[in-house]
């Protein structure tokens, strides 16, 4: 068993910013075509699954909803109001 990596101290990460779904797809296709190295505790497959799940939620909506008691009373997410 390997020791988990403390990911907030990892060097060499890249910063990404996507402007469109096409940007995400192009980036994923580029990385699927070359050998990759991860800098954290997740395998490449786990990272791709996480991204696929996020895309599903963005496109199809969340597979769950909050209980009615919470939906009935909106909560402000900004402090100071």
- In oligomeric terms, what are we looking at? single chain
Radius of gyration, Cα only, in angstroms?
A: 18 Å
Q: Give the overall pLDDT as a whole number.
A: 79
Number of strands: 0
- Quote the distance from N terminus to C terminus: 48 Å
Task: Please count the helical segments.
Answer: 3
Uncertain segments are none
Secondary-structure element order, N to C:
HHH
What does this molecule look like?
This protein has helices at residues 21-32, 44-60, 68-71. The termini are far apart. The protein is an all-alpha fold and 81 residues long. The chain has a domain at 40-64.
Quick structural gist:
The chain is mostly helical and 81 residues long. The chain has helices spanning 21-32, 44-60, 68-71.
Fold blueprint:
Blueprint: H1 21-32, H2 44-60, H3 68-71
List keywords for this structure.
single chain, about 80 residues, mainly alpha, 3 helices, about 40% helix, about 0% strand
């Amino acid at each position: 068993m390997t020791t988990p990596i403390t990911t907030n101290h990892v060097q060499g990460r890249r910063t990404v910013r996507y402007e469109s779904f096409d940007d995400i797809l192009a980036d994923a296709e580029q990385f699927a075509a070359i050998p990759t190295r991860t800098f954290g505790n997740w395998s490449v497959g786990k990272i791709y699954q996480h991204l696929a799940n996020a895309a599903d939620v963005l496109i199809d909506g969340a597979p769950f909803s909050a209980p009615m008691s919470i939906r009935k009373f909106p909560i402000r997410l900004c402090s100071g109001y």
